[in-house]
Design a protein that fits this description.
- There is one protein chain.
- The radius of gyration is 19 Å and the shape is globular.
- By secondary structure, the chain is of the alpha/beta class.
- It has one domain: Dihydropteroate synthase-like (TIM Barrel, Alpha-Beta Barrel), CATH 3.20.20.20.
- The protein contains eleven helices and eight strands.
- 46% of the residues lie in helices and 12% in strands.
Length: 303
């Protein structure tokens, strides 16, 4: 890959969309945005995923393209000014015109939650600007396939489409927490759907988490996983969105241990600490002196 990853990387969510499902992640002022980004970057976070229109499928979040574009330009310009080229900037959009305009400001990743199903023109933007793509593997409609098989099938379709348009720097997102595309009410304004989730969504989502290593192995592509504070955690644990941090961090520990490439999260610094301690544990699988040396090195670097 052109984008060099230090597996697992933390991808910090920065929402400049007031309609986002987790309001704490929304940055509405320059001070809020830069304080969060500078703190996360200082702690060791390199990747920031910026959203100008929420993609939460269970809320009505559609905004006009010009609104999304204005929000993203504001955020990207501020982050580049503050962090320079040291940070990796990702933009979470599936609309080609928005992506094309923001790409001119100097971003690194296009994160498409539709996996090029909304518009394959997004791959043309990535090709033109030399961008990495994160492609969400989503079914068009709910099938009877095993959820892992469904993700692998859809990921292959997205990969083939991107490659046919000259993009081969691809990361796959198993799209945990998202419904089939025909149940997503936010792919067009005023769209009416009767159900905004898979019928068995909490169980499907936790099953996909448990099998991300298989998905990564079969696709032979880097994997980005986003489970941060999502509904299945809240439903399975019976907690509200604030208390969902503990289930979130538990899953992040598991994801770090099984070796996913990117963990997308609202709680970036906390997740970074989880990853660091998991990496120390993994370094201690051999002899004791090797463990001591590796942990001392990691501790020194963290300090």
């Amino acid at each position: 890959m052109k984008l060099k990853l230090n597996t697992p990387e933390v991808m910090a969510v920065i929402n400049v969309s007031p309609e986002s499902f987790y309001l704490t992640s929304v940055k509405s002022t320059e001070e809020e945005l830069l304080k969060f980004a500078a703190g996360a970057f200082k702690a060791g976070v390199r990747i920031f995923d910026i959203g100008g229109m929420s993609t939460a499928p269970f809320k009505r979040t559609w905004v006009p393209e010009d609104v999304e574009l204005s929000r993203l330009k504001w955020a990207v310009n501020l982050l580049r000014r503050e962090l320079g080229d040291r940070a990796i900037l990702s933009v979470d959009t599936f609309r080609p015109r928005v992506a094309s305009e923001v790409a001119k400001l100097g971003i690194d990743i296009l994160n498409d939650v539709t996996g090029l199903r909304y518009s394959n023109e997004l791959a043309m933007v990535a090709k033109e600007h030399g961008l990495t793509m994160i492609l969400c593997a989503r079914e068009r409609t709910q099938s009877s396939l095993n959820p892992v098989d469904a993700v692998i099938n859809e990921a292959k379709w997205s990969i083939n489409m991107a490659e046919s348009m000259g993009v081969d720097d691809i990361i796959i997102d198993p799209c945990i927490g998202f419904p089939p595309l025909d149940r997503d009410q936010n792919l067009e304004p005023n769209r009416q759907v009767t159900n905004t989730r898979y019928d068995d969504w909490p169980y499907r989502d936790i099953y996909l988490v448990a099998n991300v290593a298989r998905i990564r192995m079969e696709l032979n592509r880097p994997i980005c996983v986003g489970v941060s504070r999502k509904g299945f955690i809240r439903r399975l644990l019976g907690v509200d969105i604030e208390d969902s941090i503990w289930g979130t961090l538990g899953l992040h520990a598991y994801l770090a241990y099984v070796g996913v490439d990117i963990i997308r999260t609202h709680d970036a610094v906390e997740t970074l600490h989880v990853i660091k301690i998991i990496n120390m544990v993994k370094e201690c699988g051999g002899d004791y002196l090797g463990c001591v040396n590796n942990v001392r090195k990691a501790y020194k670097e963290a300090s």
